[in-house]
Amino acid sequence: MNPVRTSQLERQTAETSIEIRLNLDGTGKNDIRTGVGFLDHMLVLFARHSLVDMEIKAQGDLQVDSHHTTEDVGICLGQAFRECLGDKSGIRRYGHMVLPMEETLVTSAVDFSGRSYLVFQAPMPSSKIGDFDSELVEDFWQAFAANAQCNLHILLHYGRNTHHIAEAIFKATARAIRIAAEFDARQVGIPSSKGIL
Fold first, then answer.
1. What does the pLDDT look like over 97-106, one tens digit per residue?
2. Do the Cβ atoms of 95 and 162 come closer than 8 Å?
3. Binning pLDDT at 50, 70 and 90, where does residue 2 land?
4. How far apart are CA 179 and CA 183, in angstroms?
5. In terms of CATH, what superfamily is 6-181?
6. Residues forming a β-bridge with 118
7. Which residues pair with 114 in a beta bridge?
């Protein structure tokens, strides 16, 4: 019998106020309201492709820009994943996905190793996607990887449209995480020769 893998947390700072609920073994149901339209769009895609049920409500200093809200949502999502995964007993641990999005191709690979590291090789052709700073895509995943304590490698093979590139990154990472977080029927205990992750 697999454990229930859910998390609920709140984070309050002088810059943002965030509430998040997560069910790792859901169907992709979501209620995302961060105040940052493009981030909401990406998180809806993430929920649907990871099959994680997510509720995220955020209020941030958007009169400054979207940076604090985007980064802090990444922090909270990473913390929620870490809590849901517990000691990681029985999971696959590793996952990867090569995902096409029209003219764009992205690979994302993840290892829930207990150690954080981000390699982000996905240059953005445009500095803006609407009014969203495209460099925040990397900042979001840096915050996620640091707080989920995972290795995350994101590689853009090729692409022209910045919106497509960002979308492919979120979809590919969602699919890679879904694989890594799944239970493996043959895996007994923690998937590490060290006995701990």
1. 999 999 999 9
2. no
3. confident
4. 9
5. Imidazole glycerol phosphate dehydratase; domain 1 (3.30.230.40)
6. 152
7. none
